[in-house]
């Protein structure tokens, strides 16, 4: 920008001529290649500047189009992901339809709230986990193509109050709820005896065990097998888990109640379970008796008639000749045909034996089908469909290690290690097992123990030889997590992450084609408001991941175009400008402005240095305004930040394979989760899962150009925060420079330019007023309404309320029933009258005045130069050149005083002239009066003479 008045007028489209004293001219935008080819001391003409601006604007339009197309084409499942997100949100915020559906199923219907107590937290987690296990948020029939995985559970800051976990009341040494004392006592006395104190210490020790990181990691975070410890069965949990862990302790049933179904009726549920088991055993016994007697009670009518036709004998009509027909044999199991004296009897016996073999086969098939149905019905009582994963070797090894070493163990002795190895290598002999032990325990220091790392290294090297349960690893979403224990230990924070994936092609062999469908991450975070209070603040985050393996040739071409255009238009100059920024700032600070130089030349020298700060090479500043150059630099910075964020997320372990896993992917999953296995057993949390890069490299069959394109997209353009969408918005604002180049649309940027300082001042005043009202609302209503509990919440609530979004401000308000609601109603009314009706109308007035001034060329030019001069003075003062501003102000003051003096002298001369003219008029009037008097006197004398 040269001589700011002239340069800025060019940038805003005015027709004022330049002074000619400057060597530079800043128009709006010039393309990179053309301006770099211009001679340094050549000032482009107005026509050339205009043409360069249009050419560069054309390339920015091209970047906007290809950038937007890249982000649009890379994701083709927006409707599917939005439908899935809506269904997931309805599970947490149920409407009347969803509530009626849960009432039909006998489940509770809690709603996720901003602030909720720990019982609601456990109920919400249990409900969401129940939906993930059974219905995958959509429907049971869609489990064939949808997978819902509990990816991660994090519990931090376990505390636990002074409480009795076995009795669910105060500890025995507390006077506040002493049920052990007898007799009477004074209010200042205590009846606590030594036995009560000892019992209280024992209960505290049990509390420390239950609320420890190791116990929570193994039984809440990982969870127990519901077939061994059914959900809501507090007796089984207390006997099988709590008692061994606490060496004899117990847990009150309220801390392991079924928060969704059953409502903690453990005794009734146990009785029903026993009755069901007795019924199943009785049926099995009856079926054994039936098979032993070769009886098929469910045999069809057609097979019976066919057998009768084959076995029909003449003697069948004579009961005395034998023991009855074949039909009679089938209907009466106690009649056994042993008569085989004649040939016909032998033939009948052979035919009967053939039919018996057929019937036995049919009975066996029916029996197998019945056993299958019973097995499925039995599993459905504890698991849902898709609860086991045969490829999750990390989970299988963790369960194996934890089952042999117990909670919190780090090293395994030789006997336990050999038993563990015998379990996964059942054909191993004693001699070979001893040799195997010596090869596994490579860092044995004489203590004969096996570490988890040694075992996992062995498992990785011999994975093909290991034998695991047929069904595989029980997934986390199907385990019993005992979320009711959160109410006992009151952790500082709870974080749960679910991954929902669409897997349209899942093959039985486990091979994948390198394509992953829609993936959605749902993370629920509950942070305790005050330590030990049991009240939590909810935070829900729903993110959608891109489809892996969906990068086409068109997407790769668009990626190459976006990177090339960004590099040419902004990235190269932005990087160089940031590198040279400290040096250019130092040059501006050391800028020497001599007093002998005119103020216009000082302005010119200052703007040259300032433009070097945002344009280190000095190419764009020859034809571009400083504000436009700054916008391009911001685009370059945000684009680089978006790419860095995408690369950071690509290397984070935040993915779980969906569908089948190839052999290479299984090994990658094991290597990525070794640290998680070791630390989870010890009660420490570490991140687990695969990074997207590892998933693309190990778990897909992509190769060649498709593989390179997928890696490039994941490293540069796939990020959760939508930073690339923000960059697209900035590019769109940059393209709006076409308004400034169009004669019919130039009124918009000119109006904004004229109103910008007043609008900035208005925003400052508006924010200050809203902050003042927020302070009053916090002091008056902060203890009663959550939206006004803190200053930032009150400010945000009132800010959006002033623009018509009233739901947040009136949440929980009952103005005609509760008195505080009436007071809040009155306060919001005052705020609406003052801020909405009065203050916001000033904003409209500022814009209207600027629009009217833009239509007057003289007024626009005057206001424009005042704005530019004010900005120049601010920059001079900021860089320590305030004396130049003061000198200019003194010079301007002297000039105005001189003009005022000249105006006063000219006014005095005009006044003296007017007084002289007035005196002359008075003299003339007096002369005229005298002449008239003389004429009248002569007329009178003449009349007297005649008379």
From TrEMBL:
Ranges of biased composition (kind: Basic and acidic residues): 296-315, 921-947
Database matches in InterPro entries: EF_Hand_1_Ca_BS (IPR018247), EF_hand_dom (IPR002048), PKD1_2_channel (IPR013122), Polycystin (IPR051223)
Membrane-spanning parts: 57-75, 555-581, 759-781, 824-853
PROSITE patterns according to UniProt: EF_HAND_1, EF_HAND_2
Polar residues bias locations: 1-11
The protein's name in its UniProt record: EF-hand domain-containing protein
Keyword Membrane assigned: yes
């Amino acid at each position: 920008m040269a001589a700011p008045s002239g340069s800025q007028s060019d940038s805003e489209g005015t027709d004022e001529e330049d002074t000619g004293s400057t060597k530079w001219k800043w128009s709006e935008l010039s393309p990179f290649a053309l301006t770099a080819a211009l001679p340094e001391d050549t000032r482009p003409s107005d026509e050339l500047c205009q043409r360069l601006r249009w050419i560069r604007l054309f390339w920015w339009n091209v970047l906007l189009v290809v950038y937007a197309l890249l982000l649009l084409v890379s994701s083709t499942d927006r409707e599917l992901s939005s439908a899935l997100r809506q269904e997931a949100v309805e599970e947490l915020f149920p409407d009347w339809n969803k509530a009626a559906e849960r009432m039909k199923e006998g489940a509770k219907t809690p709603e996720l709230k901003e602030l909720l107590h720990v019982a609601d937290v456990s109920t919400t987690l249990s409900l969401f986990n129940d939906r993930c296990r059974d219905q995958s948020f959509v429907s049971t029939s869609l489990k064939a193509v949808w997978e819902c995985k509990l990816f991660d559970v994090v519990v931090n800051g376990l505390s636990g109050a002074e409480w009795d976990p076995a009795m669910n009341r105060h500890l025995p040494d507390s006077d506040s709820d002493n049920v052990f004392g007898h007799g009477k006592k004074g209010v200042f006395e205590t009846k606590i005896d030594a036995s009560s104190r000892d019992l209280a210490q024992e209960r505290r020790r049990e509390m420390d065990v239950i609320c420890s990181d190791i116990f929570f990691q193994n039984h809440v975070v990982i969870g127990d097998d519901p077939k061994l410890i059914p959900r809501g069965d507090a007796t089984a949990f207390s006997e099988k888990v709590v008692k061994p862990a606490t060496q004899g302790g117990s847990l009150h049933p309220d801390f392991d109640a079924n928060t969704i179904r059953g409502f903690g009726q453990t005794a009734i549920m146990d009785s029903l379970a026993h009755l069901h088991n007795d019924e199943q055993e009785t049926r099995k016994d009856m079926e054994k008796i039936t098979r032993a007697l070769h009886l098929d009670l469910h045999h069809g009518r057609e097979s019976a008639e066919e057998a009768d036709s084959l076995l029909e004998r003449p003697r069948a009509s004579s009961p005395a000749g034998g023991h009855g027909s074949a039909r009679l044999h089938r209907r009466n199991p106690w009649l056994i045909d042993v008569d085989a004296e004649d040939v016909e009897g032998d033939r009948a016996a052979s035919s009967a034996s053939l039919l018996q073999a057929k019937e036995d086969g049919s009975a066996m098939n029916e029996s197998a089908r019945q056993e299958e149905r019973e097995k499925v019905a039995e599993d459905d009582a504890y698991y849902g469909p898709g609860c086991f994963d045969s490829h999750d070797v990390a989970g299988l090894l963790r369960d194996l290690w934890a089952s042999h070493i117990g909670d919190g163990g780090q090293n395994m002795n030789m006997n336990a290690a050999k038993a563990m190895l015998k379990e996964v290598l059942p054909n191993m002999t004693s001699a070979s097992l001893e040799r195997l032990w010596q090869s596994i325990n490579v860092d044995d220091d004489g203590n004969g123990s096996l570490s988890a790392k040694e075992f996992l290294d062995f498992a990785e090297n011999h994975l093909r030889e290991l034998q695991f349960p047929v069904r595989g690893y029980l997934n986390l979403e199907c385990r019993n997590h005992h979320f009711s224990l959160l109410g006992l230990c009151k952790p500082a924070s709870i974080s749960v992450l679910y991954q929902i994936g669409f897997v349209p092609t899942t093959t039985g062999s486990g091979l994948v084609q390198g394509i992953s469908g829609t993936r959605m991450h749902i993370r629920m975070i509950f942070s305790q408001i005050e330590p030990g209070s049991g009240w939590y603040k909810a935070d829900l985050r729903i993110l959608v991941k891109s489809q892996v393996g969906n990068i086409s040739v068109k997407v790769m071409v668009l990626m190459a175009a976006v990177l090339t255009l960004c590099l040419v238009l902004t990235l190269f100059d932005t990087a160089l400008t940031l590198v040279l920024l400290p040096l250019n700032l130092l040059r501006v600070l050391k800028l020497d402005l001599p007093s002998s130089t005119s103020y216009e030349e000082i302005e010119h020298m200052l703007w040259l240095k300032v433009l070097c700060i945002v344009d280190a090479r000095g190419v764009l500043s020859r034809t571009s305004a400083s504000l436009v150059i700054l916008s391009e630099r911001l685009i370059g910075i945000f684009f680089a930040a978006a790419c860095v964020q995408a690369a950071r997320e690509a290397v984070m372990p935040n993915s779980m394979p969906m569908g089948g896993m190839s052999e290479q992917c299984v090994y990658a999953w094991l290597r990525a989760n070794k640290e998680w296995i070791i630390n989870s057993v010890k009660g420490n949390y570490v991140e687990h899962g695969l990074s997207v890069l590892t998933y693309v490299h190990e778990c897909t069959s992509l190769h060649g150009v498709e593989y390179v394109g997928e890696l490039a997209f994941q490293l540069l353009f796939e990020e959760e925060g939508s930073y690339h969408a923000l960059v697209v918005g900035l590019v769109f604002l940059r393209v709006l420079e076409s308004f400034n180049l169009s004669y019919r649309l130039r009124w918009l940027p000119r109006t904004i330019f004229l109103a910008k300082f007043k609008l900035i001042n208005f925003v400052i005043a508006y924010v200050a007023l809203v902050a003042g009202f927020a302070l009053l609302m916090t002091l008056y209503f902060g203890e009663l309404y959550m939206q006004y509990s803190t200053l930032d919440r009150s400010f945000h609530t009132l800010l959006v309320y002033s623009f018509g979004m009233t739901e947040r401000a009136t949440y929980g308000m009952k103005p005609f029933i509760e008195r505080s609601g009436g007071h809040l109603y009155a306060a919001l009314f005052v705020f609406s009258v003052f801020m909405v009706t009065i203050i916001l109308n000033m904003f409209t007035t500022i814009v209207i005045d600027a629009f009217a001034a833009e239509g007057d060329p003289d007024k626009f030019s005057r206001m424009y130069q005042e704005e530019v001069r004010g900005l120049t003075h601010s920059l001079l003062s900021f860089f320590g050149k305030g004396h130049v501003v003061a000198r200019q102000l003194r010079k301007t003051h002297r000039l105005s005083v001189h003009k005022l003096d000249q105006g006063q002298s000219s006014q005095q001369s005009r006044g003296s002239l007017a007084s002289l003219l007035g005196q002359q008029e008075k003299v003339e009037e007096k002369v005229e009066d005298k002449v008239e008097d003389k004429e009248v006197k002569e007329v009178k004398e003449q009349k007297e003479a005649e008379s």
